[in-house]
Amino acid sequence: MNLAQQLINGLVLGSGYALIAIGWTVLLGAARLVNFAHGQLYMLGAFIAWFIMFKLGLSYFLSVPLAMLALGLMGVLLQAMMLRLVMQQNLTSLMIVTLGFGYVMQGGAAKIFGGDPERFISPLQNATIRFGEIWFTWQDVLTLVGTLLLFGVLWLVLNRTRIGAVVRSVAEDPKLAQLFGINAALVYIGVFVFECAAVGLGAGLVAPRTPILASMGFDEVILTFVVVVLGGIGSVGGSLLAGFGLGMFTALFGALVSPAYTTAAAFLVLLTVLVLRPRGLGAK
Amino acid sequence: MNLELEASGISVRYGGNLAVDGIDVAVPAGSMVGVVGANGAGKSTLINALAGWSRGTPMVRGSVRLGGESLDGLAPHRRAGRGLVLVPEGKGIFADLTVMENLALVRPPTDTTGRHVFSMEEIFGLFPRLAERRGHKGGMLSGGERQMVAVSRALRAAPRVLLLDEPSAGLAPRLVYELLATMRTLVDRGLSLLLVEQNVRATLELVDELYLLERGKVVARGPAASMKNDPRILEAYLGSLTT
Amino acid sequence: MKNLATPAALILAALAYFVPTVAGGAPVAYAACTTIAILAVMAYGADLILSYLGEVSLGHTIFWATGGYAASRLAVNAGWNGWATAGAAIVLSMILAAALGAATLRTREFVFSLVTYAAAVVAMEVAFNWSFLGGSDGIVGVPPLELTILGHGITGSSNAELWPIAWGLLMLTLLFIHRFRRSRLGTSALMVQMNPDLALALGVDARAVRFLVFVASAPISALAGWLYAYQRAYVGPDMFESYFLVLMLTAIVIVGRRLLLGPLIGTALIIVQQTFFSIGGDGDKIILGAVLAAILLLWPRGLIGVWDVLRRPRTTAR
């Protein structure tokens, strides 16, 4: 095993995990909403970008933003349907509803895009950079830079702007926010749209690594969950650190033990944390 | 008389329990109206209903008019935008946000006819403490400071009528007096204010008109000067002394 | 009224036995009825958690698959008969449930759901990669179910032969749920869900209740999986598919939570649609997911809520 190479792999994997998870952690922090369709949104993002690129013939760099836009629009629709339950904070029903949405997306994607695996190939995937023994692709660089950029911008928006303060106020107490003249329903829609678009970006950057399938998405939910719990619900910086930590862990575990059981191993880490701190590491 | 706030037939039902039973209440422009009563008389329920706001899911009836326009059916954030601004009892600000962020959450209205937009300078003039504390998180403030921020953010919304629910709860007597005296100053400058209080003495000294609530109904109502000698007020007053 | 309940239930149960015969006795009728009974039993396992604890377990596919794997692995490789494999399914699922229940003891709401969900995904990964369980190919050639006492009993693999067992299992499950609802554990569970403060005041140990209900629910889904293995004569990682998870949840919420016959009627509706009015596998997925979401969005109490609205159209008017 080449340690330096594994650390690079871990960094790249980790930035992908953090990127896929960020929408969820913001959504969970602001609306306490658990979206079980998250993995299917990732799948849809990948397929929509693939369709735009390979069936409509547009460039990769257009297909990803368009996929984000499509998912964002879908987010408006989905959240509008769930709004009543969200305002009532009926979290049990909401979880099951998102599970149902995810299943509809899975069936719908298989019907529209077919049940066979496809390859969503980015032009940067084959452009490699080598330093002696170590190598990585420009796609890896793009993913890493894109992730850091998104996290930086998000942190600034949440902590340094009025919109960020509005989101944090709704996260703390949506009822009180109403008295400040804030329309909590609008904030919920905005946050949900952000989740959808962010996971669309994640799919656009990360999905080129592996074949895409209408039935994929479960591992993404688990890894997202691990990132969110380790990083602390609603914590932007924590998610980034947790993403990188999990990436390193996965890379080293895959290299040293077995790549087939990496999700299982990540889950065991999660269980250990949860047994010790049932509300997650970030809980007060 | 020009009534800035006019509510009629307000009833609030929680489950099978009628907490407020057909109350009429009015706030003339530029005056301070107090609502007093024992714990559980329905004071907070009434003032929340005026703002269209509640932490539970009560059944509310009756109509509310602000500056002659009906607010019925409007969500609480819309009522706040129209200028009916409530400072709720207890937790009135966000603990995770700084003083400045709390104040900046409120957007001054676009249409300011007949409304006074309080500038940050004016607010820091009223509450100099807040200028020193502007970078502190809400959760780090003392009870008095929190109440100042809560009132300030309400003023930032340029209220036509300010609804104040038990601002004295949990505060030291000197702070209560200071805060209420500041509110009286604002009313003298033109603010219309509806104050719900358990502290009958302080309320009587400051308000123009007083309502006494018992079991969800108005049992006495009149100018503060004449209510001072009302036996029922004296009783409520004594009640508030013993608790 | 109460005196009539037991005979009425017995008559209904007996009538249920003849449903496939009345439906024409064709193989497809037996197949549909057997499948409904099996999947309904599977759903009752998750129902115990959702209806009575108020939590969403997304890990009951683990117990369902445990039953299937126990039956096929032990029948194929060790030649165990039906009683022995059923016993193994019960014991193994309870061990797994105890482990998962202990690990999730302090988690609630979405954390509980996510941990159980993650556990199911990991269990699928293990089943998929572990050659002991047949890996991705699964275990094929499960022999006919042999369930005899002193030489009398049933041996079979066709749906018509398995129907009496499926029916019996369903009736036992219904009896169990019925008893559970009246038991100390069942009422404590409801109290912990509805009024935790009261439960605490009455000295109910919420964690113990949650743990016991979780462990008690596992063998129900496991026995369904056990019979499913004999019905299909094959078991594979597809038992972890989200189809079964979504089916369980839909079956529970479609009619209404906390109704004894709710999950059975729900399962029957779904399987009848998929057997007789199917629009293709992916289309059926869309229907199932959409029904699940729509019920909770439109009538959170289930179809029974619609019935209430129809029955009393005017009393709820403002």
In brief, what are we looking at here?
The complex is a heterotrimer of chains A (284), B (243) and C (318). Chain A is 74% helix and 3% strand.
Classify the oligomer: heterotrimer
Strand order of the largest sheet of chain B: 6-7-8-3-9-10
Q: Number of domains in the coordinates of chain A?
A: 1
Work out the radius of gyration of chain B: 17 Å
Q: Report the CATH C-level class of the domain at 3-89 and 161-242 in chain B.
A: Alpha Beta
Strand content of chain A: under 5%
Backbone CA Rg of chain A: 19 Å
Q: Largest interface by residue count?
A: A-C, 46 and 46 residues
How far is it from the N-terminal to the C-terminal residue of chain A, by CA?
Answer: 40 Å
Helix content of chain B: 25-40%
Query: Quick one: how many beta strands of chain A?
Result: 2
Classify the secondary structure makeup of chain B into a structural class.
alpha/beta
Give me the secondary-structure category of chain A.
mainly alpha
Provide the CATH topology of the domain at 3-89 and 161-242 in chain B.
Rossmann fold
- Report the principal-axis shape of chain B: globular
Largest sheet of chain B: 6 strands, mixed
Low-pLDDT runs of 5+ residues of chain B are none
Explain this structure.
The complex is a heterotrimer of chains A (284), B (243) and C (318). Chain A is mainly α. Chain A has one domain. Chain A has 11 helices and 2 strands. Chain A has helices at residues 3-31, 38-54, 60-87, 91-113, 138-160, 162-172, 174-179, 184-206, 218-231, 236-256, 262-276, and strands at 128-131, 134-137. A two-stranded antiparallel ribbon of chain A has the order 1-2. In chain A, helix 1 runs parallel beside helix 5 and helix 2 crosses helix 9 (218-231). Chain A starts with a helix and ends in an 8-residue tail after the last helix. In chain A, 55% of the residues are buried. With 243 residues, chain B is of the alpha/beta class. Chain B has a domain at 3-89 and 161-242: 3-Layer(aba) Sandwich (Rossmann fold), CATH 3.40.50. In chain B, 36% of the residues lie in helices and 28% in strands. Chain B contains 10 helices and 10 strands. Chain B has helices at residues 43-51, 76-82, 99-105, 120-126, 128-132, 143-156, 173-188, 200-206, 224-227, 231-242, and strands at residues 3-14, 17-28, 32-37, 59-66, 69-70, 84-87, 161-165, 192-197, 209-214, 217-223. In chain B, strands 6-7-8-3-9-10 form a 6-stranded mixed beta sheet, with helices on both faces. In chain B, strands 2-1-4-5 form a 4-stranded antiparallel beta sheet, covered by helices on one side. In chain B, helix 3 (99-105) packs parallel to helix 6. By secondary structure, chain C is mainly alpha-helical. Helices cover 73% and strands 4% of the residues of chain C. Chain C has helices spanning 2-17, 19-22, 27-53, 60-77, 82-103, 109-129, 159-182, 184-194, 196-201, 206-232, 242-255, 262-276, 281-298, 303-311; strands at residues 139-140, 145-149, 152-156, 234-235. Chain C has a two-stranded antiparallel sheet. In chain C, helix 3 (27-53) runs parallel beside helix 7, helix 5 (82-103) runs antiparallel to helix 10 and helix 7 (159-182) packs across helix 8 (184-194). In chain C, 47% of the residues are buried. Chains in contact: A-B, A-C.
